[in-house]
Amino acid sequence: MNNTQRSYLVETAKWQKVIGILMAIGTGFLALAAILFTGLGAFAPDTIASADKPAAYFIIMGIIYIPLTVLYFFMTRYMLRSAKYLKAWGTSEAENESDLTEGLKNTKSYFKLSGIIALVSIALVVLMLVVIAIVAVFSIA
Hints:
The chain has 4 helices and no strands. With 141 residues, it is mainly α. The protein has one domain (3-140). The longest helix has 44 residues, at 97-140. The protein is elongated and about 70 Å long. The N and C termini lie far apart (66 Å).
């Protein structure tokens, strides 16, 4: 790898760290939302319940946020680990291939998980559109 390629990879690692930190903050917010929704629904049902939003609604929202938080945690972990290893590789005098390999492995894992999440999201949207279309057809008839 030449010096230009190395500098691009080191610069990428710096931005990965910034994005990873922002993702960690987002993961904290997701976890907080899961706790708040679940807690509101379970411990304050009379205070928040209304005709259009029963307490169970908040509990279900909290339960939905838990797997989202876990997914986001792993994406954050991959991003930060990738940044750490790529920066260590790029800033060391001795070319340590294990740092480069580990950094690229975590980058691959991040994009693999992102791709799976994107595919599942698209499939769920298509499924939802099909269900909405079926309900609409039977509602009109």
